[in-house]
Amino acid sequence: MTRSLTKVALTATLAVAALALGVGTAAASGGGGGRGPGGATPTKLVNAGAKQLGVTNAAIRAAIVKSANARVDDALEDGDITSAQAADVKEEIADNLGLAYRLSRASTVASALGVTTTKLNDAFRAARKALTLAAIDEARAAGRITAEQAAELKSRVESATLPGYKAGGGLFGRGPGGPHGGRHGPGR
């Protein structure tokens, strides 16, 4: 049952990516995806994750792209997409870190980096926390929040169980299991 749900989710993601390519609305090179903690883009999150892991940005990006391409290959092998669609999606993966991140799997990214999935998840939890705390500090410095509000927000972040590599309920923790301390989803 889990495999079939995963297959449906992957097929839907690939279909959306193919549609975006077809109508010319794919995200610009290197960007893509929504914003997460503190307005973090996929690029900021991945770079922060690389820093936490002690690997280069290039190494983590290569691992993410490799993992995403493997998912596309699986969908092609299963007959869920055509070879033309696979080629289009792989081209977009090469240019769009947000898409590559969404399609990647924590286990294969960790393996490509030579770390455990637990270590990858822990690093991304720490990265999310660092990005969120930095955003709170920026908001305080800009006068958008008071010192009391900043202290309360930081306290919440410190006590929250943030998602790991993948956020439950959506990219960067939107939805169930999100950045407000949810404890479910594949990034747990």
Descriptive account of the structure:
This protein has 188 residues and is an all-alpha fold. It has one domain (2-20, 34-173). It has 8 helices and no strands. The protein has helices spanning 2-23, 42-53, 57-77, 83-95, 97-103, 106-113, 117-141, 147-159. It is elongated and about 55 Å long. Residues 14-33 and 169-188 have low confidence and may be disordered.
Which runs of at least 5 residues are low in confidence (pLDDT < 50)? 14-33, 169-188
Structural class: mainly alpha
Q: How many helix segments?
A: 8
Radius of gyration: 17 Å
Largest sheet: none
Which H/E pattern describes the elements? HHHHHHHH
How many strands? Answer: 0
> Quick check: average pLDDT?
79
Query: For the terminal residues, how far apart are their CA atoms?
Result: 20 Å
Helicity, as a percent range = 55-70%
What general outline do the C-alpha atoms trace?
A: elongated
Strand content: under 5%
Number of domains: 1
